[in-house]
């Protein structure tokens, strides 16, 4: 090793992916010195995230700490195991409706540190390791001043409606076909029986949605890489909906202390395949959006969402995908238990109302009967 030149070391390390590059840096002092080279980490980032190849994004990453820091922040996923336990009793605070005022910070300094213009989104979509779509969003679309509608209306970022002209390569249109190893679908009836297309789509699609805060000089990946769930043929027979996301900490923002960042991706079948004619089945990506909901399924507004995105930049993360997936399932389980407890509470309330109504009616009838007896 001592006889090898630094240029040869560099040539070896530049052929590695980021994970192998990080491990190589722990092997010896020479590898460690060379593995800190920013060009190596830039190559690793641009290979993984096509959106980082743009010159303006490169300048952004350099300004927030460089490619090595960017990779460390964004390759790891959000891990949040602090999901409140839903108590199945009548005094359960999570089963009650929360007032709108309970969700908000009144501290204007916090709002000033979470301006929509501070955030940059880097979005990349792959299918079976083939890059399908990349987009960069500077700021949050359609946001305005602190007293405007954005802060009080439901928060949502939709990539296919606000600024399609920013996507120079795709022009807002993304297609999947048998050319991209998509299985042929002769009919939707056949797809309902075997679900082959759904399985291939669910297993093959991968999403990265990174937000960078220029003021805080930090970044975080909001996605789960692979779908957490989804539904085929909804809301029409030709739609396939995939759901990605992460569980965000919200101890200082929401009564439930956690929230879910939901990333929805929808494909629509625009042509059926036919082996006889040689035509390919084709799917079009028609929706890719982000929104944030609390445990009760309430769609949070812009003010709360900005605060949660700010909190996400400094939350705990993990490289262990199974551990991240387990935390997401823990949240979904708690959310399901909360919904069931709300249903039970409503049932108890309805039963109480019915019993009270019958009791009151019986009391009135008894009073009337006694009056008639007196006459």
Automatic annotation (TrEMBL):
Annotated ranges, domain F-box: 1-44
A Pfam family reported for this protein in Swiss-Prot or TrEMBL: F-box-like
SUPFAM superfamilies: F-box domain (SSF81383)
InterPro entries in alphabetical order: AT3G44326-like, F-box-like_dom_sf, F-box_dom
Domain of life the protein comes from: Eukaryota
PANTHER family, sorted: F-BOX DOMAIN-CONTAINING PROTEIN (PTHR33736:SF12), F-BOX PROTEIN-RELATED (PTHR33736)
Protein name: F-box domain-containing protein
Organism for this UniProt entry: Setaria italica (Foxtail millet)
Gene this chain is encoded by: LOC101773096
């Amino acid at each position: 090793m001592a006889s090898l030149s630094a240029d040869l070391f560099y040539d070896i390390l530049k052929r590695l992916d980021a994970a192998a590059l990080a491990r190589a840096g722990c092997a010896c002092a020479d590898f460690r010195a060379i593995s800190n080279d920013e060009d190596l980490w830039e190559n690793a980032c641009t290979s993984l995230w096509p959106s980082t190849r743009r010159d303006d994004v490169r300048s952004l990453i350099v300004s927030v700490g460089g490619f090595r820091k960017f990779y460390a922040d964004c390759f790891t996923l959000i891990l949040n195991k602090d999901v409140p336990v839903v108590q199945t009793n009548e005094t359960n605070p999570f089963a009650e409706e929360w007032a709108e005022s309970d969700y908000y910070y009144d501290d204007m300094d916090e709002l000033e540190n979470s301006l929509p213009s501070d955030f940059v989104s880097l979005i990349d979509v792959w299918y079976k390791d083939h890059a399908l779509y990349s987009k960069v969003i500077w700021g949050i679309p359609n946001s305005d001043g602190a007293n405007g509608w954005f802060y009080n209306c439901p928060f949502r970022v939709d990539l296919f409606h606000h600024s399609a002209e920013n996507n120079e390569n795709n022009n807002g249109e993304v297609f999947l076909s048998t050319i991209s190893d998509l299985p042929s679908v002769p009919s939707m009836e056949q797809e309902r029986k075997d679900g082959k297309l759904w399985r291939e789509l669910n297993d093959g699609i991968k999403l990265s949605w990174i937000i960078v805060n220029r003021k805080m000089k930090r970044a975080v990946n909001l996605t789960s890489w692979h779908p957490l769930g989804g539904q085929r043929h909804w809301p029409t027979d030709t739609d396939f909906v995939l759901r990605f996301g992460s569980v965000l900490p919200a101890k200082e923002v929401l009564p439930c202390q956690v929230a879910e960042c939901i990333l929805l991706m929808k494909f629509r079948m625009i042509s059926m395949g036919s082996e006889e004619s040689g035509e390919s089945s084709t799917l079009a990506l028609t929706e890719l959006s982000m929104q944030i909901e609390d445990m009760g399924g309430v769609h949070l507004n812009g003010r709360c969402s900005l605060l949660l995105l700010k909190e996400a930049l400094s939350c705990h993360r993990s490289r262990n995908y199974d551990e991240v997936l387990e935390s997401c399932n823990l949240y979904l389980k708690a959310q399901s238990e909360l919904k069931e407890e709300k249903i039970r509470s409503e049932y108890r309330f309805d039963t109480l109302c019915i019993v009270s109504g019958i009791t009151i009616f019986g009391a009135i009838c008894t009073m009337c009967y006694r009056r008639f007896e007196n006459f």
